Fold these 4 entries.
Entry 1:
Amino acid sequence: MKQISSKVFQISLGSVNVFVVEDDGLTLVDTGMKGSADKIFSAIKKAGRNPENIQRIILTHVHPDHSGSAAEIKRRLNIPVWAHGIDAELMEQGVGVRGATHLSPGIVNWLIFNLFIKRSDSAIEPVIVEKQLTDNEVLPIAGGTRILHTPGHSAGHVALLIEKEKVLISGDICANLFGLAISTVYEDIKLGIKSIGKVTNFMFDKAVFGHGNSLEKDADQKLKDFYNKLNSQ
Ligand SMILES: [Zn+2]
Ligand SMILES: [Zn+2]
């Protein structure tokens, strides 16, 4: 696990990152593709923590690279899953991708889509969601974790602002593989860009992403500059 702040850790599973927020217990944010449970557990053990201490799973959105191992981890630990209601509906049906998703422009997105996304299974193992998250709700995790409903990439997408840590868990509002860039697919790219603007109304130092590298400093300003650039195009 890579330590992002005193209570936030990132586990890289190759093409996707998941996150651990440490408090009294651990909160796992996203779960990777199907079959990622062992990798996640061993990363947590390597960092001297006990995976049995995971108290809950929060899913940023339904896509199979984020919710793919939720059912398995839930089964092993008998813990609840929390997600926004709009995506929870699909999670419970085992549907990993909502009907209409659109490929973003650019060669990198074309490559990612054709090499990885097109071939991957859009179904997930159905998982029951115990708690439906709502916009602006503050969860009692790490002294206050604000839910930011950030639709566009997926209608039920949420970002998590861990306020005292000044860390934003961005999910797939955008990516940071070779610098900040729009995600490879969106259900509604205009709404997705609006959601990038929405998070910049909050203060945070660091930002982490489902795909790519963390921003370690002035992340709110960097995302704001990125948002302004998108809007001037
Ligand atoms: Zn996604
Ligand atoms: Zn993703």
Entry 2:
Amino acid sequence: MTTQSTASSSLCIYCEEPGPFSKEHVISAGLGGDDKRFMLVDMVCKRCNTDVFGKLELAALRSSPLAISRAFLQPHGRDRGKHTTAPGIQARRKLMVNASGYPDEVDFGPHAKPIVLPQLKITGEKSFSSTAAGPDELRSFVTTLSTLFQDHQITCIRKRGPEHELRYEAITMLRSDNTFIHAESSFQAKPPRAGLWLERYDETDAGDVTPAATILQKLNGGIVLKTSSTTVEDALDFFASAVEQFSYESQVTRDTEGPIVSVGMTATIGVMERVIAKIGINLLAHYLGRDYVTDPGFRHIKTSILTGNPLVTGGLVENNRIKQLLNAAPANHHVFYLNRTRQPEGQVAITMIAHLYGVAQWVRLALNVPEPHLPFPLFFLVDYVNHKVKQQSEAEYAEALPEMWDK
Ligand SMILES: [Zn+2]
């Protein structure tokens, strides 16, 4: 016969099934929590860890609006020594929805601010539209194109698949009588120093209105010609004559205030909240032990974390004092703030606030659970550049921010 406590100590704290167990990062490695001192050992089963949390974190960190901020603010993802790579955005395309029906190409500048790239699009047999962040950007882009097309020879560069050792195709286009002709091409290991990059519109983007071709300038200055239903030669002919006839008066530069950005990602509602709630339960288990989080009061949130149903209760933090407190955290740090409010009969409700890349979101972890037996509330600072986690009491956290508390 086994006692209650030995039985529960061999069960996963989430699904309450027996192991096998695997080590679980208290704070997701993808958020900079790859710190050996903050691991749960023999608490989370392999199935929850890999099948559920792994996918959940991937979805939250790579395919949600958070991914955009993360890619721009965090220099590298999980620390894998030499193999550390920059976190990426898993997006099929970066386009901005606009009123014309044709999506605009955008990229993300510092702090994930969307920037409309200067671009010309073929919208009909003889019509085209132009877009840029402003009139100066448009003027400068058209001048660049006009210089490019004045040459009677253009080098186009096409990147080939990873199966090719010579990754780049350099295509020489010659222009005579206003017509571009494919003159020759060669394969090279490195791209030519200058040229026009060729890309194809993704054919899986069904349902979108795709222009026949778009010519655009990337943030790094490179010029890209993207084609869908037209040939490269025809697109070049079209744009060369469009640039010659370009009139700034007839071209409308769109107002880009408050743009709606579609980065072609599938956003799943509630994924981020589930990840934050899981980190909250992990932190409680790490700090207070497994017995605390196996209280039936946490069953509700665990179901939400594991299945997404019901949705995790939470939202953006609106309390200005708390926002100020979290915004005062050192640069390159996430903050997780565990707090409790007293409930009837000596019980407490527990909430967690996650301050990630400057945005504070709260989630409710439980409504009626026992008062924690160790000091509360708690702050966890995650240095996402160096992958170090620091636990602080409210007083320790506040000590670092004296100016805030003098008021
Ligand atoms: Zn489990």
Entry 3:
Amino acid sequence: MEQDFPASPLGLYIHIPFCLSRCGYCSFFSVPYRKSALNEYVDYLHKEKALYQSQLNRPLATIYFGGGTPSLLNAEQIMDLLSGLNILPKAEITLEINPLQITENYLQTLNKTPVNRLSIGVQSMNPEELNWLERQHKPEQIQEKIALCRQFGYQNISLDLIYGLPNSSVQSLQRTVEKYLTLKPEHISCYLLTLDNDCRKAKERAFLPDEEMQAEQYEFLCNCLKQEGYIHYEISNFALSGYASQHNLRYWHSDDYLALGASAAGWITPIRYQNPADLNLYYQSVDKGEAFPQREELSEQRIVQDYLMMGLRLKEGIDLDEFNNRFRFKLTALYEAKISKLQKIGMLNLTEHNLALSEKALFVSNSVIGDLIL
Ligand code: SF4
């Protein structure tokens, strides 16, 4: 007799590519906000959702509204996008929110949706840095904004922080971090500023701190946040106990997630796919009823490589027993020589149960992981 296994949980990412203005350092796909354009886009998200009905019958463990600026959605649009989904009772549902959009009116309506985690794009508490980043909010507004979120019952708040800003130092970063700590966020994501060729400020690369200063700033963040009780659970992410981002953990554990919206990229084992990073092409693709656009079916070897690439970003690294169960072979046997070489130069730590980057490898993780898997 055939046995039915319960469907495994899924993550869902919904991309909202509209922004009120374009920040000069940004190279993400984003387009200027217009209400009518956002409404049309949301209609397409609904059509796209219908293309993945069989996947969306799976229980959803996490949902993430990212952007762009997803807080341009009103509560009704959020509710409509969540309607008909099989959301697990304890699902983590995150909304990235622009500080300027944290108002009593917005939170009052947002509060009626199941969104239970806010990721706030604070970036810095230094007015000159915010100015350079072309962010519209002011540092002095943040405390009041967070207090308002707390007042509306949001107990899982993540703040973004950008380091390696032009002319920054450990001291200037320290001033920002001290202000963050007074806000007591449950989670802090720290990103090193990079200026890609296609961003407006690409020519200002000369003002960025050198690699040594970037590494010092990173080291400061790691030490300081650890001292303040944050668990450094992923290269760029710090959380109080119990507040690691469940959605992002799906990426790092190579668990399945569906992605909706222009430029959004998803992973439904063994398929990687990405929607076009262009509104018209995205609309055409949805109109054609195309599921999993630009799909690539990964070989077992690529799946293992991606699993390592993502999993090694976690401080705990790769759980060797889990790897063995998933892929039916021993990781340490396949990469024995490379692991031993990287261990000798102090870049990898191998224990009976885990393979992880060493502390000093975290800032140069890409090259260490590349050395291991390529
Ligand atoms: S950094 Fe964020 S808010 Fe600024 S343009 Fe890019 S996506 Fe929009």
Entry 4:
Amino acid sequence: MQTRLDKALAAFPRADVLQGATRIQRAERLEQELGLREQGVGLYLKRDDHMHIGGGGNKLRKLEFHLGAALKNGVDTLITVGGIQSNHARLTAAVCARLGMACELILTRSVPKADTDYELNGNVLLDQLFGARIQVLAKGGDSLAAAEHRANELRAAGRNVMVIPTGGSTPLGSLGYARCAAEIAQQEIELGVHFSEVVIPNGSAGTHAGLAAGFELLGRGASTVKSWSVLADQQTSASRTRQLTQEALALLGHAATLAPQVIHIDGSQLGEGYGLPTPAMIEAVHLMARCEGLLVDPVYSGKAFAGLLADLRQGRYRAGDNVLFVMTGGTPGLYAYRDTFSQSL
Ligand SMILES: Cc1ncc(COP(=O)(O)O)c(C=O)c1O
């Protein structure tokens, strides 16, 4: 049955880079390790880290809608921005390679980390393999202004350029995760499970905003989503997420004012700042690897999983609850943090 959400989403052009739903699997060994079975709590993983292109990750869902608009407008060059180890930049480079577009990346040294692995390995190595042209800015540089400047240069030379802002987190990009809410609802029917909460990291807020807008339109409510902020403090993250959720809803033809309390964000895993490791993140990366043979990244999903572990250990969930942790990808980042992990082994 086509829902109101499906109908609203169908109005937007989308490039199908995902090629189908990502898997949901039960984290049985983690459930055992954390004593969740005895408590009657189920833990499931949505494998948005496992996709067909570029190493996978949450940014591909947003890029589907950005690319839909780009292809419709005959764009031949994409420019985007991010940190040196931006997963969004890497995936933009990968989809450009697949679609035969040129890709330019304006990367900022936003994390106080300058070792060789951080500067040259992980995502930045892959950006180059995918054929992107890279320009690096010092900390505090205005990457969007630099992107617009470069776009104008290229336009003057006859190119048709589109600039995608940080993380692809515009109302249009967020629709990728509104679509994911519909995908999760369909998988619930297939699996015979109801997820009481969907847990994610929050950086530029598009993932949270899209899921929240999607669940709102499905009648489940934006509060189905809980995120752990890894870029900004809790308050900044919450107001940005609420604003973007409302903009995404408006784009989908639903003009509602959301109460602040329906946007659930916890800022307690941020630590000393964006991209800076915490002991809880290191433990979370180890636990996921050793119990499930799966990888979470040091900047986003590692901190969010650390937050979820804290909630599970504190007994925040009740018997009968099923929690869905969205694995958002970013594993190339592990290679950029070799120093952090080799110290912890
Ligand atoms: C691996 C990974 N997970 C989560 C996020 C956060 O998503 P959002 O920026 O939509 O909040 C990002 C953003 O860069 C990411 O790269």
